[in-house]
Structures are given as C-alpha cells and as structure tokens.
Design a protein that fits this description.
Structural class: alpha+beta
Number of strands: 14
CATH architecture of one domain: 3-Layer(bba) Sandwich
CATH superfamily of one domain: FAD/NAD(P)-binding domain
CATH topology of one domain: FAD/NAD(P)-binding domain
Number of helices: 7
Strand order of the largest sheet: 9-2-1-12-11-10
Radius of gyration: 22 Å
Distance between the termini: 38 Å
CATH class of one domain: Alpha Beta
Largest sheet: 6 strands, mixed
Strand content: 25-35%
C-alpha cells in the first residue's frame, strides 16, 4: 500500500468503486481504494440491482440514464460482465392525477433524450397479463429499465479503475482519519498510515462511523434485511413468452422486509 496518494477512497462497494473509476477517467492516477474486507461485502452485495430512468428530479433522471449507458462502457474496458438485463419497465396510473403526472414525465423526458411511451390500460394488459386493467387508466413504458448484478458492476468499476492506474487494497480496515494543518489527511489503517490530499467517505453501512472519526454525524442507519423466496408462481410461469421477465428466477415471488 502506498504511503501517499492524491485521493483515498474508503469503502469498496459500488459507490466507492464508481468514484475510483471516475477519478481515473478524469485523469487522476495516484488514487487508492481501501476496503475493510472484500469488494461488495457491505450493503452492495444484497442490493436489488434495479435500474430505470424515470424520476421526479430531471437531473437525477439524466444521471440514471448516464449510468445505464456507463455499464456497457465499463464492461468493454474491464472484460467483466455487469449482468445487465434490459427488460423494459412499466409505471401505472390508477388515478387521473397520476396519469397527468406520467404525461408530464413523458414530456420532460423528451428534452432529456428519453424514449418513454404512454400506453392505455388495455395495451399494458397485453404486455403484462397479470394486471387487472379495470383498476388503471394507463401507464408509461420505459424501454431501458431492467436490472443488473451489483457485484458485477462493482468489479467492472474496480477493474476499469485499476487499468487506469488506481490501487485497491483489501482486508484493510480504516480505524481513524486525522486532518493536517495544510488540509490533507492521515488515513490510519490496520496496515499502516496513508497520507492523502483528499479523502472520500464511501463507507456505505459504515459511512456514519467514518464520519464520526472527524465529528460529522451522517443520518444513516444500517438495516437488517430478511428475504423470503417462495416456490414457483404458477400464474407467472404460465405466461407464454413472459415478456417482462428476463430469467427463470423472476418466476419466483420474492418478499423482502427490513428491521
């Protein structure tokens, strides 16, 4: 591990790996990612991996669209699959107000370069036979919605960053961050101290503890997740072609709860 870097990124989840990759993409070569265990071993490993471009904030929608396009980029650079499945996605409207909001969303999507399509309830029912169209007025189709493998994405970011000159150290826990008078930092780890000009807190579940090292209290609370997976759902398995399911695992009902 280096003793001095321009940037030290704390946390080897999808956010930390993405920050590392974008630093190298911007021309920063002397950058280091420090992970307490293995990449994706925190909150990233059980993330749902859903992706879409529809959002109430147009800036976030544009960022989401950029990210979906980015997955193909880092796959080509790294040779690591992101496990990307573009299935398309539907948002439904059960009230006139909701339908008006979807119309506004489609109009706003035009200037963001999004190809959103308004559909009637009958048109949606043909695509998704499990829906009872009597309860809906219509909806909107996002053709590039789908899901990815969060671990694959993280590894693709990490490998692309390493090819760009970044260093990644695993099994190394950050135990303290100490500011220097010149604005730089000493990042104290279980394997030595690194002098960094800048520090990025990408600790995920542990971001609050990393912030506490310098007196910052991030309003983050770790959650314990519980998952129940049923047997095959006959109604789903019987749909010929299953147009909105990209793999056999989608034929099972997954119930998630937090505590």
């Amino acid at each position: 591990m280096k003793s001095h870097v321009q940037v030290a990124v704390i946390g080897g989840g999808v956010v930390g790996a993405s920050v590392l990759y974008h630093l190298t993409k911007a021309g920063w070569r002397d950058v280091l990612l420090i992970e307490r265990a293995e990449l994706t071993s925190g909150s990233t490993w059980h993330a749902a991996g859903g992706m879409h471009t529809v959002n109430g904030d147009p800036n976030v929608a544009k960022l989401q669209q950029y990210t979906i396009q980015l997955y193909s980029e880092i796959e080509k650079i790294s040779g690591q699959s992101c496990g990307m499945h573009i299935t398309g996605g539907l948002m439904l409207a059960g009230t006139r107000e909701r339908m008006d909001w979807l119309k506004m969303t489609q109009a706003r999507g035009r200037y963001l370069g999004m190809e959103l399509e308004l559909l009637s309830a009958a048109e949606i029912a043909k695509m998704y036979p499990l829906m009872d169209e009597r309860h809906f007025l219509g909806g909107i189709l996002d053709p590039i919605e789908g899901h990815i493998d969060p671990s694959g994405v993280t590894l693709a970011y990490a490998k692309s960053a390493q090819l760009g000159g970044a260093e990644i150290v695993r099994q190394t826990r950050v135990v303290d961050t100490r500011p220097r008078a010149d604005g730089s930092w000493d990042v104290v780890t279980t394997h030595g101290t690194v002098h960094a000009e800048h520090v990025v807190n990408a600790g995920g579940l542990w971001a609050r503890k990393v912030g506490n090292m310098v007196g910052v209290d991030h309003p983050l609370v770790p959650m314990v997740h519980h998952y129940l997976v049923t047997d095959e759902v006959p109604e789903v398995a019987a749909i010929e072609g299953r147009p909105w399911f990209s793999d056999a695992s989608s034929e099972r009902l997954v119930l998630a709860a937090c505590s």
